[in-house]
Write a structure and sequence with these properties.
By secondary structure, the chain is an alpha+beta fold. 44% of the residues lie in helices and 14% in strands.
Length: 465
Amino acid sequence: MAGKRKENEAGSSNDLRADVLRVLGVLKIATADQIQRLSTPHLTYRHMTKPTPAKRKEARTASHRAAVNDLRRHGLAIDGGRTRGGEETRLLTKDGLAAAAIDLDREMEEMGGMPKSGGRSGASHAMTVNETVIALIRPKPNPDKVAGEPAEAVAAARAAACAPDGIGTLASYATEVALPVKGTWKNPVIGSARADVVLTAPGVGVPLLFIEVDNCTEEAAIIAQKFDKYARFFQRQEKDTDGIHKPLWRTRWPAPAADEYERVHPPVLLVFHQAGQRSAKNQIARVADLTRHHWQGTWHREGGYHSYTGCIPIVATTLDQLREHGPAGPAFWRFGRDHRQPLLDAIGNARRDAYLARRRQAARQEQRRREEREAAQREARRPVCADCGSKFTDDRWGTIGYTRGWDKRESHPQLCENCQDRAVAAEQQGEADERERQEQERLRQEAEEHGPGQKTRGWFSLFRD
């Protein structure tokens, strides 16, 4: 025990250090508070008796701060500076990132890059990225781990556990992901896009979602220019391992195959945080106007929906709305629509899906009607037994069909199987009766030829003659 304590002087457990590695492996830079809320959300509801929010935060993050310190002593983590609010941040070293890759079951090329500046500039953008991920996941506490706490803490934990689900888990996310318009994933050329967050959660209806975060500090034109890079990246084709050219992004991320009606690029979510002086509402409207050529679809009059072939579905929200409503709430505005929707509806095309569903239903009904007509026509051609009048079974109908050898043809094709059996048995009995009659007739004739008084000459009589 003493040796273990010496190795991990802060006294953290293996599980806590693994939590820190996974969170920092995804987020790259984070505070102990963010690490705790993502990995062990039940701690948020403990220490409710502490007198101030600061003391409550200090108590619930103590274990993870100890885990970070132990990782730092082992050369896996370093200080990342402080946020503008004064909180310490931590990030992983190269060795720490490699260790996190093992825990996350990812290749190093999949880990993404480090955020620019980090804590030297307050890490405001990185912190907003982290809060976006937390708001999307909505980590739920285990109420059993809050047992024994004050009633208000238990009630709050249960309410959080029963709240609408978020999307994915920590392993569903990656940050600072390069999207090369040329070059490789590891060495993209200058001018390539870099996604703040990439979400892959096909099990809940989000096969692939790129996320861009803005603190309302950048000009709308600069944000709009990112979509020119996204468009170039989405259009890039590469030969996959199967020898077929396909969009480069499909060689890395799984996604459902595009159907025959349209081929749409993966969606991009914009999350605005009202931290800068620009209005989030104005930013969204301005970016929507500047990127219209990327997202605007064409009206499909027959189907009553917009087709987005070759377009980028762009969805926007604010961090406050995302925190309040979550992914399942009406917090997302799809550029080109006039109302807010849940995330899955916003990135989808419900009218098109309904139209295609109607087409598939109509096709199934037409197929059923065609099969019924063909069955009726076939039934009308079904042979009828010439004896009992019953319809032939499918097996009997097939049996009387053409066979190559004459010896294999049915003896009574106009009869059903039962009547054929009776007919064959009757014929066989008739033949047997005829043979018996002929034998009796032969014996009678022989008797008449010899006469009633004539004895039949025996074999010895030949010698007497």
